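Field: COMPLEX_INPUT
Field: COMPONENT_COUNT = two
Field: RESIDUE_TOTAL = 958
Field: MODE = joint
Values follow.
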Amino acid sequence: MRIADFVVIGLLVAALAWCVRRTRFAAAIECALPAMLLAFAFIPEERLRLMTIGAIGAAAFALAVVAGCRLPVVVVCGVILLRWLPLADLELLRELIVLAAALALLAAFRERTPGVAVAVLAVAVVTPIHPGRAMLFPFLLAAIVLLLRDWRWRVPAPLRAAVFAVAFALFALWPWSGVVARALPLFKRFDPPAGTTRGIGAALANGDVTAFDLPPHVRRVVVTASGENIPRMRGGKLLGTIDVVTRDGHTCTRELNVGDVSDFGFLRREQFIKARNSLPKSTPFDVYGYGATAFVKGNGRVAVSCEGRDLASLRIMGAGLPAAGRLQIESIELPAR
Amino acid sequence: MTYALLLAASLAAPPLLLAGRTFRRWLLTWCGAWVAFGILAWSAQLFRAAVDPDLALAAFAVLLLALGFAFVAFGSEVKWSAGRAAVAAFLVYAALIPAMTKTPIDGDEPYYLLITESLVADHDLDLANQYRELPHSRFGAMTHRTDLAPQQGDAAGTHGEQRSRLEPFLPLLLTPGYAAGGLTGALLTLALFGALLARSTLRLFEDEGIADATARALFPLILFGPPVVFYAARIWPEVPAAFCFVEAVRGIRQRRAPRWIAALLALVLLKLRFLLIAVVLLARAVRTRTQAAVAAALVAVPLLVVWIMSGRGWELIPHDGPAMLRGLAGLAIDGMSGIAFQSPVYLFALIAIARWRTMPAGFRLGTSASALYVFTLIGRPEWHGGWAPPLRYIVVFMPLLALGIAALWERVAAGPVALAAAWTIGLVIHGIAFPWRLFHIANGENAVGETLSAIWHSDFSRLFPSAIRTNFALLVGGIVLVIMLTIFRTGRMLRPAVFGVLLAIAFWFGLQPGSRVDFEDAHVIHRGGALYPPEYTVNRFAYRGGWELHPGDSLEFLFKAGSAQIDYASPNGATISIDGRNVVLPPTARYGSARVAVPRTGRVILGCQAGAVNVDRITHE
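Field: COMPLEX_OUTPUT
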């Protein structure tokens, strides 16, 4: 996190504190500033540091909402926090349009409640800025809300509390708001490595082959791979094949399709809307970057076995790829028995 | 499991005090907190954040408790009474026991417990057989302290008896609990005293006209903040003594002689040194000849008993004068053992003392009673409490100091209160997650400074005042304290944002090379060698210290270029190198010094090339 980003965060917290300056909560919200500084100083590990700063920021926002800060202020601060960092990658004009759209959506609601603010921020965080017309999505929603303005709906208090809790936790992940915006379903598909991993680093074009011998007593191998230059390929399309040969001469073949693995960067902010890839079924959840430009790598983990037999070798071939496309074999993992 | 009880207490304690809509809101928030915590814990795995699970659970448990007591403080439907608060306090203190006993009991704790064991098993105070049987005894298995040996000052009998120098009254109080439940039973007894202290403190507030709203707001900061929270679940006489002191003050204020007589007697029996408190209180309480006779007996009997048993009457006599100022400053602002850094809420109590005349009568009585005790304490080399959690020797006064805070509370701006509360929560989380760090060697550093120094390899400890190894920060801190005590009105200038800016400046300053490096400090990268004297040497603060080097060992540190003086001890002389340039150090009988040249500002490597040397410090000239 750069100093400029830190300054922006500080200003946002100061704005929230100013918003509730006549209440007892202002000082508590201001405490987020020294708390974030202390987190920076005391936590050397970058991910944990960002997560702690994220939680502190979310707590400041939550307190501001509880203290009755005017919702337009909360929405503006929230949109800036969720979408404008890192400042180095900010596309100001587009983001100002999204901000205006969020405020329009807020204005469309008859009642301005904390739940409405949560909904508006949720819409704002997922709104893409590429292509340009996607930025108009909140305006469209605002029009729909205006039409349904007379609807009355009560949410039971326990459900409201649960929604706020989930919203708080997801808001606390604002250091990786891009991941939350574009890859939330991947949270359920996390599959961490559990055995010995061997790095490969092979990029296969159509017809290219890479092969490995396997040590004894291996019945299952997990291949971690991703695609390169394949974001427009739809789910289910063939990318390659994995052949495993058993010690007694049996061969099993497994196809590698889009959906098993995806393009490396299809979850990037610039590529997401145009990409046709589907989310990998199983992911090591490798995160790159931070803020609105953070993304999860589109690599996937594919387990291969052959009728429970001991495997002798593994052979992976690229197939069905476009001319510039590559199948990147990152590693193979031999799960612990 | 360590935090399961604490998490349960976070659910069980607040409902004792909440009702109606406030209770429902709290409950929903509590449940929501669990949902949020679960998601964040899962996310930490996803994002591969290197979370310490122990610290995370401790933080979550403390924050849940803080949340609950925030509802008690600010809620509209609260079932408030001293009795209910005491029950809530007992639940929390009892729940702390697993966390506090993650590591074996330490300091004087095992000795108090050993006396208890002797009382239960042998019905005597002779510990000779206890020491002999340690490796195979139930006590040894229970406490994992089979390394105990008679302490300095313990009395030995003519027939091989071994008596402890510690007063036996606390062990006597612990016998029922210990007999029923061993170490846990003893700790539950202390927790019970903690609950009694909570009740008495809140009754004192009521007696002195403190509003309920103030009491509710202060209650968690005082009773679940340091130092009380760390002594209420550990085997020290401090919390029972605090309870006795509060009851004595209340008894004198209400002119209920049986109450204050019993309380003062118990106070002095807990620790002979508290006689200095009792004397002053007695002088304020005595009105008739009969009472004067009782007072004389109250002073003479415990003095005689303890003198006969341990011969320790000498400690009532004040010591070295010049050290007293340092001890007083240390109690207030030392980074390791001072109020400012170890229990910042009590800074408001210091302000209350400075506004003596406007304080409630009970506060004036209590603090005047403390004067003689503090006067004799601050001149002692172990004013900081020795090998114990911070502020040990003034825990007894905390409830009375809390009364001063309560009297000031409505005047204090939200900013300083929020900062003090946040720092208090941080201290509690740290103490619960890392209870062994409550004990810190008296080397002039502190846990915060050491942690920052170790992370950034720069001397952050110098930013914290130290009365143990006096530094410039002590002078600055002392001046700031005096100014604060003089001009404080509401503290509204001390906003958290301003404090954040000051922190940022301090952090930048901490990263700069220093002009003095003590080689045993945490920011120095030690490659070989050994600490001198060893870390757990008894009364280590009385030694000069340093780092012993032999050929091949080296130290790396941040320093300014130029001429410097290195202080060292080397009976046979040694050759060291500084950034590759050899320097011959002549032999010294004790500590000597030599001039060296540091070629450049930045990271410097000091290596031992020949001989053996204990290098203490290097100071820029």
